[in-house]
Design brief:
9 helices; globular; 243 residues; mainly alpha; 70% helix
């Protein structure tokens, strides 16, 4: 499930670019729902393709069904085809994550986290934040700690979801008259359901992978005092966004 989280994670990636959108009230919901539905449809089609090429009993015990299916279709070249498709898909994933992480680092640096990382060039790109994010990614890949990072961040992702879903209930109670251009149909039941499922994932991840879950909790705990130190002053609470 830790790896599956990465399959669908990014559904909320548009939020990182909300300050760069011309019509966020329209574009954010469209992107979120469109992305989730698109990924679900693609994976269903892929599985239908597997079932068309391979019988269930031949799938059983296969570490990578895609490779087995490719071998059935392309013969000895099947492995090469899968490798190429994997590399291409990974490139798009790395591109998306780099764009998102650079925006996070840029926003934090606006409040003084990394001096200079708040710089934005004429094209609207936070080049310093983008470069620093790339350096960190390369370091993780070269040190062979990617799998550990995958497990740790999967836990952090879902912990973030829990905080987001809980904040929906809190903010709707605190600010009942705030403008809400998008109507969350099914709330509070749908929001409550994903909140419970997310909590269940965290409990399961902690029991099945205690060490990496503890690493995630430690990082999460350390982020609180860092936030308190970096919390923007009232006069700096609304800096100019990326354009």
């Amino acid at each position: 499930m830790q790896a599956v989280i990465f399959t669908y994670d990014g559904w909320n990636g548009i939020v990182y670019f909300s300050g760069e959108l011309r019509n966020p009230a329209r574009d954010i919901p469209r992107s979120i729902f469109g992305g989730v539905v698109s990924v679900a449809v693609i994976y269903l089609l892929v599985n239908i393709g597997f079932l068309y090429v391979l019988p269930i009993d031949k799938m059983a015990g296969q570490p990578l069904v895609a490779a087995t299916a490719a071998n059935e279709i392309f013969g000895t070249k099947g492995d090469t085809v899968i490798r190429v498709l994997t590399i291409v898909s990974l490139m798009s994933a790395v591109n998306a994550y780099q764009l998102m992480t650079s925006r996070v680092l840029h926003r934090l640096s606006v409040f003084g986290f990394v001096p200079g990382a708040s710089y934005v060039n004429r094209g609207g790109t936070p080049v310093v934040a983008l470069f620093l994010s790339a350096v960190v990614v390369i370091a993780l890949v070269t040190t062979g700690t990617f799998e550990v990072v995958l497990a740790v961040t999967a836990f952090l992702f879902v912990a973030q979801y829990v905080l987001i879903f809980a904040s929906v209930f809190i903010l709707r109670k605190r600010e009942p008259n705030a403008p809400r251009p998008f109507r969350a149909r099914g709330h509070p039941w749908t929001t409550g359901l994903v909140l419970v499922v997310s909590l269940g994932f965290l409990v399961g991840a902690f029991l099945a992978d205690t060490r990496n879950s503890v690493y995630s909790l430690v990082l999460l705990a350390l982020s609180w005092p860092v936030y308190l130190l970096m919390r923007p002053k009232p006069e700096n609470s609304n800096p100019v966004p990326l354009t």
